[in-house]
Amino acid sequence: MTLGLPEVLEQIGRQAAAASRVLAQATTAQKNEALAAIARRIERDAASILAANEADVQAGAANGLSSAMLDRARLDSKRIQMIATSVRDVVDLPDPVGSVISEWSRPNGLKISKKRVPIGVIGIIYESRPNVTTDAASLCLKTGNAVILRGGSEAIRSNMALAEAVSGGCTEAGLPEAAVQLVPSTDRAAVTLMAQLDRYIHLIIPRGGRALIEAVTSSARMPVIKHYDGICALYVDSAADLRMAEQIVINAKCQRPSACNSIETMLVHESVARQFLPHCAAALWERGVEIRGDPLTRQILGAKVVPATAQDWRTEYLDLILAVRVVQSLEQAVDHIDANGSHHSDSIVTEDHEAAQAFLNQIDSAAVFWNASPRFNDGGEFGFGAEIGISTDRLHARGPMGLEELTSYKYLVEGTGQVRG
Amino acid sequence: MTLGLPEVLEQIGRQAAAASRVLAQATTAQKNEALAAIARRIERDAASILAANEADVQAGAANGLSSAMLDRARLDSKRIQMIATSVRDVVDLPDPVGSVISEWSRPNGLKISKKRVPIGVIGIIYESRPNVTTDAASLCLKTGNAVILRGGSEAIRSNMALAEAVSGGCTEAGLPEAAVQLVPSTDRAAVTLMAQLDRYIHLIIPRGGRALIEAVTSSARMPVIKHYDGICALYVDSAADLRMAEQIVINAKCQRPSACNSIETMLVHESVARQFLPHCAAALWERGVEIRGDPLTRQILGAKVVPATAQDWRTEYLDLILAVRVVQSLEQAVDHIDANGSHHSDSIVTEDHEAAQAFLNQIDSAAVFWNASPRFNDGGEFGFGAEIGISTDRLHARGPMGLEELTSYKYLVEGTGQVRG
Questions:
Q1: Could you give the count of Cα atoms lying within 13 Å of B154 in the half-sphere of its Cβ?
Q2: A chain contacts of residue B203, beta-carbon cutoff 8 Å
Q3: How far A248 CA lies from chain B's nearest CA (Å)?
Q4: A18 contacts: CB under 8 Å, gap ≥ 6
Q5: Beta strand A111-118 pairing with A407-418
Q6: pTM of the entire structure?
Q7: CATH number of B5-226+400-413
Q8: Across chain B, what does the average pLDDT equal?
Q9: Rounded to whole angstroms, how far apart are CA atoms B18 and B131?
Q10: Positions of CATH 3.40.605.10 in chain A
Q11: CATH class of domain segment(s) A232-381
Q12: Which whole-number Å values give the CA distances from A296 to A233, A336, B146, in the listed order?
């Protein structure tokens, strides 16, 4: 008898909970051994992983997937090697589990320590890219969390082949096979069923577009950490080093337009606009950037600038398009960002310390930059070694989510017989 | 024209968001000034608050509320004074906002600091006790959060009178009146509407019974921090100091049976059961405790012990009842707690350091105690000064939630023109 989807998910949840209890007690050496074994297996099984991927790509093409989607799902031997290397890189990262966050004594002699522990069971729901299977699994494994993965249908065979290498690596190191499980169904109902499994799953992280995140958020009974859009702005202050400002704008817009920490908006103080904008615009145009501007920007730069609508200030282009507005003051820049931005990554360029402090204090974003490109809002660039995403939430994790953000904590209290009076 | 409930809540949400931006920039002195003004107003307006409360109690009695509920809703001049004192106590607590959690530099010269900021807008949904209005408001205010309160119908007039004192205190100190708002409706639909206001409210904390928490969790689109039951256990190890064990059991069961950190279960190692149980049971019986036991416990203590069912191991009695089981080993105690407990507060009594470490490591609870009463799992006892509750969640806050747990953080990054390569 084949189990129905609800029973399959119930079983996966129960197995994950049991595995998480073993993982919580695993040593760093054991977890690293599993990671090394996983990397070896990915390399060893490259041919069968590539065959599974080829079947995915052919099925996707037959189903009329866009070439962009097919490209994201496609693996080759170089990408396989990169996947194995990413897993191996996690071996070298410090294990946060067991570290003491703080400790203190109470007047009654109780000694309290706050110690990092795994979260427990983490659900990851993702789209397209098969490398998420191993990236997410290796970060969860390193932090002692069991993980339930649910990838997209366009990569189901690739994901299953990779998940097999991961489970095999776990058992090779004496860890439970169910430490990492992939939901073996592309049925959309599986997402809703996972979101209801709050008796087993402690946290769900959706990695994908807005529609996926909203679907998970509206049905989830457990905490969800969201990685929403970045509508990021750069403000060129009246006291900016204009050469620096231009270099940062070009980097923040052009280096990787599809990244969430690239800017979509530039705000320029009116006192420097006439001096700054023509040279900066020429450099942007040279790189193929379309500029959409407010009336003052158009007055300075001319008709080549597309008129910006209210919608432009609130759009994550993820493309070579930049909305530009001339503002009268730092306060107006702050108000603009507060009303239109997504509280992700924003930056000020100025030599005026006071203006910088006002901006850093008042801008309510996960990361606020002064004289630096907001492209640095990234786990790797922050020195976290790896990241599972950039949280746009304010609870538990905000900004880059590294290994520490994949842990919880517990209090250990040692006494000598104290009772409460 | 009167606004409908959805429009009222939309307006409350928008006002809270605007107030939160002002509060985030408020100085500690300003927030303390508001708290002092609130305490003064509560004392000054005691007569009208008591009159409102009297109307609540009379309406509740007319509606057939239980005397326990009426008692929880009832205020007198002593309770009013305690409420004012509680608000004033928050003045002396350190303000976590603005403190630097960590800071470091990157090889490229970027200086990164992780700084505490308010969460933003917090929704509190609670039942019965009017003092939650001022307790929650003062902790949120101190941490720079705007708060939307939704109390129960049995205390609506008292809550409104107290909320008026709070808003008045805020404006007196130059802070927005909407820093603290009370939903002026006892319609149950208001709870669901609040839970959908994720564009304004960043966190909801339900304070009440399981039914309330589940209703909020299933409809909420924003993070919810839950304060569920405590099914707490005390394990008396083979190497326990038996006199200490008895004192801790009596404290943990009898000092305040209705508290979530009181024990419901005692597990006793078989090697000490015959020596320990008779004396301990006599002391418990003397204090009116009913003992429900497994067969071995009954064999030792006799027929006065009620046979324990499987349900007894999973029940939060909140009463003078204790389930007792004799176990063969520490492992069996850990398995029992893992299978039946609620991961809240558990305790081991032993002189054996190795056994203690095994228990502390393996028990997956918010607070694990060694030779101390689990009744110490409390914000005040931990030295947090105050608490908004004891979280049974694993994300953002676990265990006592003090002022730090009412904050988020942001990253501030200072550069000298760095761009990403």
A1: 23
A2: 394-395
A3: 6
A4: A176, A178
A5: antiparallel
A6: 0.94
A7: 3.40.605.10
A8: 95
A9: 26
A10: 5-226+400-413
A11: alpha beta
A12: 18, 16, 37
The closest of A390, A393, A410 to A401, measured between CA atoms, is A390
Q: Do B367 and B79 meet the contact criterion of CB atoms below 8 Å apart?
A: no
Structure tokens at A107: 């007047």
Residue B128 pLDDT > 90, yes or no? no
Among residues B304, B285, B279, B280, the alpha carbon closest in space to that of B293 is found at B304
Interval B184-212: pLDDT, tens: 988 889 999 999 999 999 999 999 888 99
Backbone angles phi, psi at A368, to 5 degrees: -120, 130
Q: How far apart (Å, rounded) are the C-alpha atoms in residues A369 and B177?
A: 32
Q: Where are the beta strands (DSSP E) in A203-289?
A: 203-207, 232-236, 263-269
Please report, as a single letter, which amino acid is at residue B67.
S
- Cβ(B193)–Cβ(B204) below 8 Å: no
The pLDDT of residue B129 is 86
CA atoms within 13 A on the CB side of A247: 13
**What is the structure's pLDDT at B67?**
86
Which DSSP symbol is given to A178? G
Contacts of B409 in chain A (CB under 8 A): 398
Distance from CA of A278 to the nearest CA of B (A): 20
Q: Residue A355: its chain B contacts at CB < 8 A?
A: none
How large is the average pLDDT for residues A383-401? Answer: 93
CB contact under 8 A, A221 and B223: no
Domain with CATH 3.40.309.10 in chain B: 232-381
Predicted ipTM of the assembly: 0.95
Instruction: Please tell me the distance from the alpha carbon of residue B344 to that of residue B399, in angstroms, as a whole number.
Output: 7
Of B110, B376, B417, the CB nearest to A247: B417
Return the pLDDT at A1: 57
Q: Look at A413 and B248 and tell me if their CB atoms are within 8 Å.
A: no
Indicate whether B1 pLDDT > 60: no
Q: How far is A371 from chain B (nearest CA, A)?
A: 5
Burial label, A211 (beta-carbon count in 10 A; 0-12, 13-18, 19+): exposed
Q: Tell me, what's the pLDDT at A385?
A: 87
- Taking residues B214-225, what's their average pLDDT? 91
Which chain A residue has the Cα nearest residue B225?
Answer: A223
Q: Is the pLDDT of residue A400 over 60?
A: yes
